[in-house]
Design brief:
By secondary structure, the protein is mainly beta. The chain has two domains: about 5-70 and about 125-140, Chitinase A, domain 3 (Roll), CATH 3.10.50.40; about 70-120, Beta Barrel (Thrombin, subunit H), CATH 2.40.10. It has two helices and nine strands; from the N terminus they run ββαβαββββββ. The strands form two sheets. Strands 1, 2, 3, 4 and 9 form a five-stranded antiparallel beta sheet that branches. A four-stranded antiparallel beta sheet has the order 5-8-7-6, with no helix packed on it. The chain is elongated, with a radius of gyration of 18 Å. The two termini are about 15 Å apart.
Length: about 140
């Protein structure tokens, strides 16, 4: 993997309304970003590929270059009876589902109506224009 490198960064992900969706600064836990291993979109990599330790950089990505567009096929309507009777089901609740190879897939309850529960398996930031504010702590 020629040209691969890792950056330890503090990162804020900011929504269009200015609110912070995620902040490693607030959690105190910087994140490793791997350039060149296909874990990031080409647009994201283009923004961070040349950054060095101590650099601060801000950029905006469209949904397709960040967490993807909202996939309507990832929204499911399930019968209430498929959930434990004592499970709290209300909009905003995140439920873990078992995916392929026993992977864990989080789903957010979008709506509960009578005996139907609408669950969205899209990433919570899918479909959103996002501003990334990065500070490179270390280059590995």
């Amino acid at each position: 993997m020629t040209g691969a490198r890792s950056l330890l960064c503090h990162m804020d992900i900011v929504l269009e309304d200015g609110s912070i969706a995620e902040s490693t600064k607030q959690s105190g836990k910087p994140v490793w970003l791997n350039v060149g291993d296909n874990s990031l979109s080409p647009e994201f990599e283009a923004q961070i590929g040349q950054l060095q330790q101590g650099d601060k950089h801000q950029f905006i990505l469209q949904p397709e270059a960040a967490f993807g567009p909202i996939n309507p096929d990832a929204i499911h309507y399930l019968e209430r009876s498929r959930f434990p009777a004592d499970m709290v089901l209300e909009p905003g609740v995140i439920i873990s589902f078992t995916g392929p190879a026993n992977s864990e897939i989080p789903g957010m309850v979008r709506d509960v109506a009578a005996d139907s529960v609408t669950v969205d398996l899209n990433h919570p930031l899918a479909g959103q224009v996002l501003k990334f504010e990065l500070e490179v702590v270390q280059v590995g």
